[in-house]
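Consider this pair:
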Amino acid sequence: MELGLAGRRVLVTGAGKGIGRGTVQALHAAGARVVAVSRTQGDLDSLVRECPGIEPVCVDLGDWEATERALGSVGPVDLLVNNAAVALLQPFLEVTKEAFDRSVEVNLRAAIQVSQIVARGLIARGVPGAIVNVSSQGSKRAVTNHSVYCSTKGALDMLTKVMALELGPHKIRVNAVNPTVVMTPMGQAAWSDPHKAKTMLDRIPLGKFAEVEHVVDAILFLLSDRSGMTTGSTMPVEGGFWAC
């Protein structure tokens, strides 16, 4: 399926690792012009070597002022992937203010700020665009020790819908993808214990976790004009987890 992404300028947050890195690699291969945002310079350096021509931006999106300085003059962007996130897992009774604040800053507030920057640019140029927020299966299902993480992802799903409602008249589509556990290095480390993994796999009809490319394929479809009548949706990439 031709997605028509060649020549489009795409900003990807959380681009250094995992889903974000896979998204940058796939967009680069498709001929898109990519602005890759990460807080880790070493990840950006290696990504530039893998994908010559991408534009790296090193900034901690949890810092509102630094993000404004880094991205406020980023120039015309056609498509956006809000992928940056943290997963600070604590039992509910042990949740700290620091973990809560950091999670909200990165998982939710950064998506608002970066989307405002991109959407304002699209509206000023009078051109259509698309935004994809990377959410989680945990936005709609409770997971032990994930009270803050699930809460931020639930909020991100509703933000997606409100953004779709308000930005639709400007021809800007906004959707979310909601993956299960993904076999990134972080996912492998967090779910390497067979007993812990079994408790989750038993709730997934397909009986397996996702690979990065499963999520990347969904993101690219939602960025492309092939999904031109889709907005305000939360696309599950979770092997049937929500069906149970």
User: Anything to note?
Assistant: The chain has eight helices and seven strands. The chain has one domain: 9-237.
